[in-house]
Structure formats: structure tokens, C-alpha cells
Design goal:
Strand content: under 5%
Shape: globular
CATH architecture of the largest domain: Up-down Bundle
Distance between the termini: 48 Å
Largest sheet: none
CATH superfamily of the largest domain: MFS general substrate transporter like domains
CATH topology of the largest domain: Growth Hormone, Chain: A
CATH class of the largest domain: Mainly Alpha
Order of helices and strands: HHHHHHHHHHHHHHH
Number of helices: 15
Number of domains: 2
């Protein structure tokens, strides 16, 4: 039997999937390692919250950096730069003994995180152009699978007595390997293939389309951040046992992964408008169930519905972003990606403030309200 030959387009698709998977795994390792470093360095909960907020801010700056690198060079170099920044900051975080050094490294990590977030979506859109069938759902499925693997690896490291330091160093080494090896298979072209005169003219980007698409990303990441940051707390408040509380997050991630594996098929089968509308409805129902649940099992069911929404909304939004202005898709994606971090802040900080002021039930209605901002995209996709 002849050995299958990987075409350049196919090898690039595999490389992009690897970038998404490693990004998800690395982020999962960092967030699950934070409690260990919190106790080692002596950071209280308020300091940790400020660090997470700072990471969101520097990640947004990283998206802007990715845009600049992609315009002047290409998004492949932006991916390499982002992972190099992440690897260096992870090594410092792993060995830091002073709070200031650790905090500085964490903020630099956020910069690298934002660069790779934006640049990996730029690469995904470039690869999508070489395929008739949708691909971004599977790329995001690779990210979710990587996140699950990263979290499980972290759990295994703690169980084996290795600690967070070894896990962060291992993640840094993997990212260095990716910079050296895997990025060679990414698309070296600029997304902007318009004539040089047109690029020099710098005509304004279609702002309304960017905002409409970005609001879908905002809603999705608000849900994701709210459940990731406060889901376990909410279940505990409903009386969930210590062993049951983390199950809510696991069920949520499983639902996200399931939909992302099926999203490309669903888009081909029933079309983007129906999938997008179904995701918005599922997210709204999930949020309402979580908000008004009086038992942990009911809230977990709400988390699952929310996962179905997030699993579909994010890849659809970035696929749509890639088609807004194909000649300048790198710039469009960098701008749409900024809504990612606004959602992360709303979900973590906004929901947390509402929990303090009015309780968890009221707080989980915030993501439901933000889902209404995705309705213009649903309407536009039907035209």
C-alpha cells in the first residue's frame, strides 16, 4: 500500500491544528498552576485577580502586535514570535521567587498569548481558503482537546509530586520545539494579497461588520470566562460535594469539544444561520437554567447547554471574520480577537462583582443578556 503523501495545504492544516492544541494545553497548564504559585510566592486572591486582569490587557496588546507583524511580515512569523514570548515567560514564572518577577513574567505571558491567539486564527483562515469544507470547528476542537490534556497533565504532575515548576518548564520546551519545527509548515504568505497600491491607500476596514462579528466573540468568551472562573463556586454554593463541584467544568468542556468536532459538519448540513441561531438559543437557555437552578445537577445541565453555544459561536465568528475583507483578513481578525479579552474580563470580573452584589443567580444572567449582542450576526448571516 502506498504511503499517503501530505500536500502543502494538508500539512499546513495539521500544523495549524497543532498550534491550536499547544495553545490550549499551555494556557490550561498556566491557569491550573496558579494556585500552587499563589501559595509559594505569597499572593492573595485580590492580587491573583489583578494578575488575571493584567494578562487580559496584555493579551489584547498582543493581538495588536500580531496585526503589525502580520502586515509587515506574515502571520507565520507572528505565531513563532508569540510562542517564543510565551516560552521565555513560562521559564521565568517557573523559577521566580519574587512576586514582582512572577507578576512581570505573567504579564509578558499574556502578551505572547494574545499574539498566538490572533496569529493562529489568521493562519486558520488562510488554510480554510484552500479547502471547500469548513475547518475552523476542528481547529478549535484541537484547542479544547489540548486544554483538557494540559489540565490532566497538570493533575498528573501534582499526583506524582513533580509540582507546577516542572509542568511549566515542559510547556516552555514544547513551545520552543514548535517555533523551531512546526512553524515551518505554516502558510508563509500574507493574507493581504491586494495590489501594493491598494494596501498603501489604507482604506478604512468595514467597522460595522467587525463589530457585529466581534460581539459574537464577546458573548461566547463572557460565557466561557464566567463558567471557568465561577462555575465551581456556584455549584459549591448550591450544596455540591467537593468531588462533584469540578464536574460542572468538565461537563462544560466536554460539550464544547463535542460541538467543535461536529460544527464543520453541521455548517455544511444545515447552514451557518441555523447553527448560529441554535447556538444563541442554547446559550440563553443554559444561562437561564444556571441562574435559576436550585440543585447542582440542574446547574451542570445548564453548563452543558452553555458549552454547546460556545463550541459553535467561536469558530463561526472567526470564519465570518476571515470573509469580511479577504484581502486584509489578518487585520480584521486581529480586531475581532480583541473582543475575546473583553469577554474574558466581563466573565471573570463582571460576573464576580455581580456575585458579590446580588448573588450567583443574578450574575449568571449577565452572559444571557450579552448573548443578545450576537443577534445582529444571526440576522446578517441569513441575508
Amino acid at each position: 500500500m502506498a504511503t499517503p503523501v501530505l500536500t502543502p495545504t494538508r500539512s499546513r492544516a495539521i500544523a495549524v491544528g497543532g498550534v491550536f492544541a499547544l495553545q490550549g494545553a499551555g494556557y490550561a497548564v498556566v491557569v491550573t498552576a496558579l494556585p500552587s504559585f499563589q501559595s509559594r510566592i505569597g499572593l492573595d486572591a485580590a492580587a491573583l485577580s489583578i494578575i488575571l486582569l493584567g494578562v487580559c490587557v496584555t493579551a489584547a496588546l498582543g493581538s495588536v502586535v500580531a496585526d503589525a507583524v502580520a502586515i509587515r511580515r506574515n502571520s507565520r512569523q507572528a505565531v513563532a514570535l508569540g510562542f517564543a514570548v510565551q516560552a521565555a515567560s513560562l521559564l521565568v514564572m517557573a523559577t521566580a521567587s519574587l512576586p514582582a518577577l512572577f507578576i512581570g513574567a505573567a504579564l509578558i505571558y499574556g502578551l505572547g498569548l494574545g499574539i498566538v491567539d490572533a496569529a493562529s486564527n489568521m493562519q486558520a483562515v488562510l488554510v480554510q481558503r484552500g479547502h471547500v469544507v469548513p475547518l475552523l470547528g476542528r481547529f478549535y476542537a484541537a484547542y479544547t482537546a489540548g486544554a483538557i490534556l494540559g489540565a490532566m497533565t497538570m493533575s498528573g504532575a501534582f499526583a506524582a509530586g513533580m509540582g507546577a515548576m516542572a509542568a511549566l518548564i515542559a510547556a516552555a520546551v514544547l513551545q520552543i520545539v514548535l517555533v523551531v519545527v512546526a512553524t515551518r509548515h505554516l502558510d508563509p504568505e500574507r493574507a493581504a494579497r491586494a495590489p501594493r497600491e491598494a494596501r498603501t491607500a489604507r482604506t478604512p476596514l468595514p467597522r460595522r461588520a467587525i463589530v457585529v462579528t466581534g460581539l459574537v466573540v464577546l458573548a461566547a468568551f463572557t460565557i466561557d470566562s464566567a463558567i471557568s472562573s465561577w462555575g465551581t463556586v456556584h455549584l459549591t454554593g448550591l450544596g455540591a460535594a467537593a468531588a462533584l463541584a469540578p464536574v460542572g467544568y468538565a461537563v462544560y468542556q466536554a460539550a464544547v469539544l463535542l460541538v467543535r468536532l461536529a460544527a464543520d459538519f453541521l455548517v455544511r448540513w444545515v447552514g451557518t444561520p441555523l447553527v448560529l441561531a441554535g447556538a444563541v438559543i442554547a446559550g440563553a437557555l443554559g444561562g437561564l437554567v444556571v441562574a435559576f437552578a436550585d440543585a447542582p445537577t440542574a446547574a451542570i445541565a445548564g453548563f452543558a447547554l452553555s458549552g454547546l453555544a460556545v463550541g459553535a459561536l467561536v469558530p463561526i465568528a472567526f470564519t465570518r471574520a476571515g470573509g469580511i475583507d479577504p484581502a486584509r483578513s489578518d487585520e480584521v481578525i486581529a480586531r475581532v480577537n480583541l473582543f475575546n479579552y473583553a469577554g474574558a474580563v466581563f466573565g471573570a470580573v463582571g460576573v464576580g462583582l455581580v456575585i458579590d452584589a446580588g448573588g450567583a443567580s443574578l450574575a449568571f444572567l449577565l452572559p444571557v443578556l450579552l448573548l443578545a449582542t450576537a443577534l445582529p450576526a444571526v440576522i446578517a448571516s441569513r441575508r
